[in-house]
Structure of Cupin domain-containing protein:
Amino acid sequence: MSQPDKPTMPYWHVYTDADGVSRQEKFSLTAFELKGVNPDVSPQWNDKMDPSKAGVTFTVLPVGWVGDWHENPKPQWIAILTGRWFVETMDGHRVEMGPGELMMGEDQGTVERDGRKGHRSGTVGDEPCTMIVTGLDVTPTVNQPGRFR
């Protein structure tokens, strides 16, 4: 029996560049291994992150919610469950995301420019945006876009 093709999983990385400007680019997780979680379980594709202490928050952003310019409080994975939202970075790039999309928020250490610091975000459309946010107790990186490839 042939082994299935190794999957990839796209994500948006909001990061701080060397000049302190927040940017975002789309990358893919690619370090998947086909392995069971224990010997009695059928193999599944897993891309394990480095171990770290983490906190999980379930978030509901109301219709019309806007979070003006701010940095992510810590590096955090954000998975959209329902609804839509946007993220606009200091470089002017605005991305809308919906159910099933994934983002790494890592724009700590930005430098304020023209009233902008970090990113702004908000809901899109006429329904709340629900998400699961996994904040990591790790040191944020600078100018390492797509570091989870």
The CA atoms of residues 70 and 98 lie 21 Å apart. DSSP finds no helices and twelve strands in the chain.
